[in-house]
Every structure is written in C-alpha cells, then in structure tokens.
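Exam review. A common question shows you a sequence with its structure tokens and asks you to describe the fold in words. Practice with the pair below. Do the first one on your own.
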Amino acid sequence: MINLATSTGIPLSMMAVLMLSVFTVSLGYGIVLPLLPFVIERLLGAGGDAAQVSRATGLLTALYTFALFLFAPAWGRLSDRYGRRPILLIGLLGFSATMLTFAFIENLTAVYAERFLSGLFAAAVTPAALAAIGDLAATEEERARRLTFVSLAGISGFLLGPMLGVFVSRGAANIPPIAGAAGALAVPLAGTAILAFVVAAAVMTIPISKQSDAAQKRDQSASQTGRWLVPKLLALAFIVSAAVGVFEVGLALRGKQDLGLTQYQIALMFTECSLIMFVVQAIVFSPWIKPETTRWFIAPALAVLAAGLFLVPRASDFALMLVVIGAVAASAGILSPILTYWISSKAGMAQGAELGKQTAASSLGVTVGSAAGGLLFDVTWLPNAPFLLMAVLIALGVVLSLSLPNMLVAPKLGKGGDDRNVEKFSPL
C-alpha cells in the first residue's frame, strides 16, 4: 500500500487538495457527458431531430477539449510567473461559475459559450496542480508517485462522473419541487459547481510554497536537457491520447453496430478500461519500481498499444473484445503517468509551462482521435480505417521512443571528464 503521508516535501493536506482539484474538474466533465444530449434535446424543442442532437453533442464536447488545448500552456506559464495558488483559484472559481451557469441555461448558443469557458478555466487546474508537485517533490520517487496520485484522481473523477450525473438527475426527478427535465438535469451541474467552490476555499488554506532547495538543485541539472527531448515526450503524449480517443469512440460504435452488444455490455467494456488504467497507474510507480526504470517501458507499451488497436476490429465476440480492451487499457494506462513524470523531470524551473503543454498535447490528441474515430469508422476505401491508421501512427511513435532510455538518464562523468564512472541502469 502506498502511503501519502511521508516525511518528504509535500504535506498530506496539500496533496489531498491538489488531488481534489483535479478530481473536481474531471468529475464535472464526466457528469456533463451523459446529460449533454438531454440538455440539447430540451433546448432544441420539438423542432430538433436526432441528427441535430448528435452533431451538437459532438461539437460541444470537442469545444471543451479544444479550449483545454488552447489555454493549458498559457495557464502553466502564468503559474510559473505568479504562483500555483492564484491560478488554481482562478481555475476552480471560474469552473464553478460556468457549471452553475450551465445548470440554468435556456439557450443553445449560450451552451456553446459555457462549454468553451468551462474548458478555459478547467485548463488552469491540472497544469498548476502537477507543477506544484514538481516544485516541492524532494526526490524523484516522490515526484513520480505524487504525479501518479493526481492522475488517478483524474481517472476517478471521469469514471464516477457519468454514473453520478445520471443517478443524481434521476433521483432529483422524483422530488416534487424540482421535478421536470430542466430542474432534474440542473441538480448534478449545480452540485459540481458547489464542489468546485468548496475545493477553491480549501486551496486558500494550504501552504503552496516555492520550490524546495532539493527541487531547485535537481532542476538545475534537469535544465541541461537536450532541446528536443521534451518535444519528443509531448509528441508521444499526443499519440497516446489520440489512440485513446480513437479507441473510445470506435469501441462504442463497433460494440453497437458490428457486434450488436447491449448498452450494459458496452458500459462494462468502458468500466473495464477505466479500472485497468487505474490499477496499472497505481502499480507503475509503486515502491517496487524505481522511477528511472520506467523509461524502458515506453517503447514496449507503445508496441502493445499498436497491436491492441490493430486487433480491436478483429475481435469477433464480447469475450475477445474484453481481452483486447485489457491490452489497450493497460498499455495506455502505463504510458500516461510515465510521460507526465519524465516531462516534469526534464522541465527544469518551467514546471507549469511544460506540464501545460503536456495537458494541451493530451487534450488535442483526444480531440483529434475522437473525431477521427467517428468520421473514419464507416469509410469504404479502407476497412477499419481509424484503428489501422492509429496503429501505424503508434508504430512511428515506437521508432521515436527507441532512443529515449539513453536520453532520459544522462551519464554521470567522472572527475577526469570521461565516462568511466557512468552510472549503469538495467531495464530489469
């Protein structure tokens, strides 16, 4: 069992608040997903049809992730300049205000504005929270595990959000004072707004200080990293997120249209995916695996991810789909925290800026992958196009990652300037 309360540089209270911050914005995104079609259907009224609802749902979801892509780097740079606490507060309070507004919107155009603004403020939270950990982690082991905790908090929010949104809205519909579609759908949205406000209040109570002495010494060494190393890691973050986007959309479409699975079976596949990602992320930076060892996992995990996506359209029944889903989820779940850790490790003093870029790359990847998964699913010129093309892109990522293990851990030269005292690392 991994213990959050250690004697290292990040207090337990601060860690809990940072995790809650990321959990809250992920929860809000997850809550909106299943409710969005019903909100759109209500706002369109009798004149709306299924095609309009589907198109608006896709555009609004893409608009949110596109706002994350646009603004996460800027928020990260601002947190480097003005501190993590102000940016976290702006992000959480802005997210709270937009979600509360969403609960009472009566115009579809206003929904578009709300989704963009909600993504804009949500983009501030994750880079600032991750950068705060990068600032204060006294050791690489602490940095790796605390970054993973934040990632797990985000996955938990996304996993819980859809179920909680549906459950709360259905329960609210049975309460006479708020019965009716508009009132019932507003309850989980308003609840998320209140939670974000409470977490913002908690942010004001924790001591988010500047970098510790140990972190500054470590970051002076990290700042000597080659100029193309972090861009390579960001490119891989984009590829992995695009693969997840293709996989999630393609999985739902293939389950419904090709395999004729029930809603319960499709939901079970997504639940399996989230749970496996949660477990492997908890394992990959456990006390049994040294952080520097994780650099050897990148290329093999990418290869498994490519093979899994290639096999998705070839899984002919539900049982085989579960096996393939396990491989894809495990490889993607391993890669995400590893890439975040190494980007933070090589960011030097620019933790917010580089982790903002990582958030942007991941958001753009999900946007592009989701769009490709839907638009290319039924093309006739290339059967199974989204899965095949994504597998090829990931294969290129494997080639890109082959040189990373040696680049990520720089040799330590001896006194004479040679490499006789180079520290050796084994992949095992």
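Now try the second one, then compare your answer with the model answer below.
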Amino acid sequence: MPTQSPVAPGPRPPIGSRADAAPGQRPDRHAEPQQSSPKVTVVDPTMVKRAVSAAALGNAMEWFDFGVYSYIAVTLGHVFFPSGNPTAQLLSTFGAFAAAFLVRPVGGMVFGPLGDRIGRQKVLAITMIMMAVGTFAIGLIPSYATIGVGAPILLLVARLVQGFSTGGEYGGASTFIAEYAPDKKRGFLGSWLEFGTLAGYVGGAGLVTLMTALLSTEDLNSWGWRIPFLIAGPMGIIGLYLRMRLEETPAFAQLEKEARSKEKARREAEKRIGIREMVFGQWRSMLLCVGLVLVFNVTDYMLLSYMPSYLTSELKYDETHGLLVVLAVMVLMMVVQPFAGRLSDRFGRRPVIAAGCAGFLVLSVPALLLIRQGSLLAIALGMAALGLLLVTFTSTMPATLPALFPTKVRYGSLSIGFNISVSLFGGTTPLVVTALIGATGNKMMPAYYMMAAAVIGGIAVWRMSESARRPLPGSPPAVETGAEAHEVIEAARRKAKAGAAN
C-alpha cells in the first residue's frame, strides 16, 4: 500500500508517518517522525498498477453490461414494445434506458456516503455484484408476446437495479484511482478508467455487431438478443474477484487511522457527515461538477449510445455498418486516451477540457452534416471528429472531478453530483433528442444539443481551478520516489521559513 514517507525504495514507514532524510537515506523504520516535517505519500508502483488495472477492468465489465442495452435497442423495441411506429418503439425503449439514469442519484446518495464511511473497495465490490445480477436478469425475461405487459415491467425493474448500481460506480472508481495516483501522473492514470469504459462498450458493440451479422432477424428477435445479457453472470464473478483483491486507498486509510486516534469521537462524527453537508456544504464544487459532467455525458451518450440508433431509425442506414463505424471510433478513442491523459498532466486539465468544449461548439454541425451525407467515409469522418473531441473529456474527468472535493466527502459528493447531472442531462439524451426530432422534424437536433452542452461546460471550465500536478484537497502530496518526497519537504520548509521571515 502507498505510504506517507519520503523513503527511497525499500522498507517504508507505515501510512501517516513523516520522515526526514536525504535522498537515498533511510531513517529507522520505527523512529519517531519529526513533527516539523510535512506528510508526503510515496506510492508503491506495484500497488498503483494493481489498483488502476482492477478499477479499469471492473469498469469495463460494468459498462459492457450497461452499454449492451443501447446497442441492441432496436431489437429490444421489437421484443418488449411491439408497435407499428418505429419512432414510438424507439421512444419506449429509450424510456426504459432513461429510467435507469433517473434512479442513479438514489444509488449515488446510498453508495457515495457509504464509500466515505466503510471504504471505497467494499462499495465497488457491491456495485459490481448488483450490475451483474441486473444485467443477467434481463437475459431471462420473457418477451411481450409471451407474458404481455409484464415483460416491459420486468425490463424496467432490471434497468432500475442497473441504474442503482451504477450510481456508486463512477464516483467510487475515479476516487479510487485518484487517491492512489501520484500528483504528477493523476491525469494519465485516471485516463485508464475511461479506457476501461470504452473497452466495455467495444466489447458490447462488437458482440452485438457479430450477432447482427450472423443471425437472421427472426433468430435475433427470438433468442439471440439474450446472449449479451447472459454473459454478464460470469463476467460479474471475474470483476468481483478483481475488486476483492484490492487494498483500500491511502487517503481513506489515513482517515481510518485518525479515527482510531485520541480524537476518535470527533473523527467518527466527521466520517458520518450527512448528505446535506455533502451537497450544500460543497455547493460551489457541486455546481462545477454538474456542469462538467453535463458536457461530458451529453456528448458521450450522444455519440456512443444514441448515434447507432440515429443512423438506423432516422437516416435508414444499415444497422450492421452503423455499429461497425461506432466500434471503429471507440477503438480510435482508446488509442488516443492515454496520450490525452498525459497532455492534461503536462498542460493542465482546464486547457484540455476547454479545447473539447470549443471543438463541440464549432464542429458539431459540420460533423453531423457529414454523418447525414450518408456515405461510409463521410459517416466515419464525422463520427471520428466527434470521438476525438470526446476524448478531451474522457481522458481528463476521472482526475478532474475527484479533485473538486476533500477526502472526507469525496466519494459521496462526487457520486451525488455526478449522478444528478447524468440523470437529468446525460442519460436522457437519447430520449430527449429522439422526442425533439419527432416534434420538429429537424434531424440536426443532435448537433444543437451538443453545442448547448458545450456552452455550459465552457462556463464550468472558466470557473474551476486547475488541479494538475497538485495534491487532492484534504490529502498530502503524492510522489513516486523518496527523492521527490525529499524535494517536496524541503520546498515546504523553505516556504515556511520565508513566511516566518516576513
């Protein structure tokens, strides 16, 4: 586990210790720390890699489960919402899709505070179990033709379980990686979380594309659609195993240690901060979180969840080719993702996110016009442009959002703010845009919707503080080596002496 000490590789003091040593020199493991030295976390590279890998792989499995629904939405409309009107079918299917997002804030209000109380790792294991159960259950539901109205009701219940589970997923996984990562690499390491999300989407889209290509329409409607959902069972077991092997983050472990100190009663009270304090006590950060998540998720769900159905239902494009284009765009995003994360470490989160907002404001209409042109090349270019712009958000948000909140409320406040924004704006994107197109007949609505989101995101970026290469609020600096820790301590001492002299 990462430790708070500037000791070079080798035996390290326990979490929370403070040591004062020249580069390469190891103080006695059990020596009393000098109280004048600031705390510094020296991360264990092996533990960081394990934490990032497990969080990203678990996230991939969660979002394979959650994303499959959108990629097979047209087929689900035939199975659960039979109607002669394709638009009405799609509205009903995406209505169930949106319902899962409406319950996400409830999941965030439950799992977020719980993660701040009992630990990030335990809650992430719980969310994995619930997602696997909810997704597996969808694969077992009889069709509308078999049990009538009971079929869409059961589908809705399963989606609500999925949504409740997801309410604790992103806030927990991003908090977990952010609290493990050294300050200088938080953007790069955080980018692997959304790499996992994209991998899950690619797995889901790839499987649905393969089934669509190999199975007849009758087979797909009768039994083929169940396959992606039934796979969730064994995948959930693997994901649970990975997450159970993780150790708790150093930031939360430090809170645990302080709770066992002579100030135990006060610390325990702090750990049980209510939702009111998590929301209104962090109101400025909460508003910034909502604005950033809005532009991130509106563009994300527009491109990765809605566009396959838009190509099929609105532009009458071949379903298989549409999914293949989306699949290729996501693979492109995965390739670029870590590099964009490194850029945010070097130049800052604000410039990278601002570039994405400006890009969506300027390029949404030209990109959608390319997509509407209809040829495979034009669609691919338009989708690729939107995908590369989206990477500016997917690569930076896992490091940006946790830095808005202090350790004691980070999981809870982030989960609540993130899921409120996703529920109101992100998850409803397919439903709202489909309804707007139906009401106005204007098939450019997706572009206008993304432009509006970009304006709101730009305002949030303007008002936020830069967090790259800086410690998380409420946590000590995190570095990779004892030499770096020594430099941080010396810099803090020089600053303190300068302040005392003045």
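Model answer, second protein: The chain has one domain: 42-244+272-470. The beta strands are 41-42, 478-479. Full marks require stating both points clearly.
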